[in-house]
Specification:
The strands form three sheets. Strands 5-4-3-6-7 form a five-stranded mixed β-sheet, with helices on one face. It has a four-stranded antiparallel β-sheet with strand order 8-9-11-10. Strands 1-2 form a two-stranded antiparallel ribbon. The protein has helices at 23-27, 43-61, 74-88, 103-107, 156-172, 194-200; strands at 13-16, 19-22, 31-36, 64-70, 96-98, 132-136, 142-147, 174-175, 186-188, 206-209, 212-215. The chain folds into two domains: 13-154, Glutaredoxin (3-Layer(aba) Sandwich), CATH 3.40.30.10; 173-215, Antioxidant, Horf6, Chain A, domain2 (Antioxidant, Horf6, Chain A, domain 2, 2-Layer Sandwich), CATH 3.30.1020.10. The chain is built from six helices and eleven strands. It has 221 residues and is of the alpha+beta class. A hairpin with a 2-residue loop joins strand 1 and strand 2 (19-22).
Length: 221
């Protein structure tokens, strides 16, 4: 079955461009951004890895670790990184998993359980479902899942915005409305009673609808 929000992200051991890792141990107390690719040397994924390489520092500032996955072997990954550096001007500094036995892809519900064979003989189209993003919390729970078709490049600025919203929600029990950006007003969740809200937000809140309490954004995470 496909993984969904609230599920524990499957643990695994795998070879990466930075050596062998045990995923949960590697993640530690950090947030994780696991994003998958159908094959190495695919054009849209090249642009995505290049852009993630450029903004990787923004994720690191938020205590988040990006990690990518493709079914190609590690030696192909290193050659692909050369292309990515040539294209974007920056070589990825986050790990790229070599999922040559499809074990991670299967564990995360991105490929059928009966997938087998030489990964380098599969076409990207055969792996089209390897186009997911999982945002994983320090508690190892999946907090958000994005799924993209091969023809649509992922918006990593949106992934960063979603991470900001998730971290704000966890820290302050608030929700973010449509089109929210950091610094915008937020909505109190049902986890905060009116009595507690009066203590937390002594300046009060706006009530555009009886079931909606809008407050200025908390000043710290």
């Amino acid at each position: 079955m496909a993984l969904t929000i609230g599920d524990i992200a499957p643990d695994f051991e795998a070879e990466t461009t930075q050596g062998r890792i045990s995923f949960h141990e590697w993640l530690g107390d950090s947030w994780g951004i696991l994003f998958s690719h159908p094959r190495d040397f695919t054009p849209i994924c090249t642009t995505e890895l290049g852009y993630m390489a450029l903004i990787n520092g923004e994720f690191e500032k938020r205590g988040a670790k990006p990690i990518a996955i493709s079914v190609d072997p590690i030696d192909n990954h290193e050659k692909w990184f050369d292309d990515i550096a040539e294209f974007s001007g920056t070589r990825p500094t986050f790990p790229l998993i070599g999922d040559t036995d499809f074990a991670v892809a299967k564990a995360y519900g991105m490929l059928p359980a009966d997938t087998a064979g030489d990964p380098t003989e599969r076409t990207p189209a055969q792996n089209a479902t390897l186009r997911n993003v999982f945002i994983i919390g320090p508690d190892k729970q999946i907090k958000l899942v994005f799924i993209y078709p091969m023809t649509i490049g992922r918006n990593f600025d949106e992934i960063l915005r979603a991470l900001d919203a998730l971290q704000l929600s966890v820290a302050h029990r608030v929700a973010t409305p449509a089109q929210w950006s950091p610094g915008d007003d937020v909505v109190l969740t049902g986890a905060i009673s009116d009595d507690e809200a009066k203590t937390l937000y002594p300046e009060g809140w706006k009530t555009p609808l009886p079931y909606m309490r809008v407050v200025a954004p908390p000043t710290s995470k």
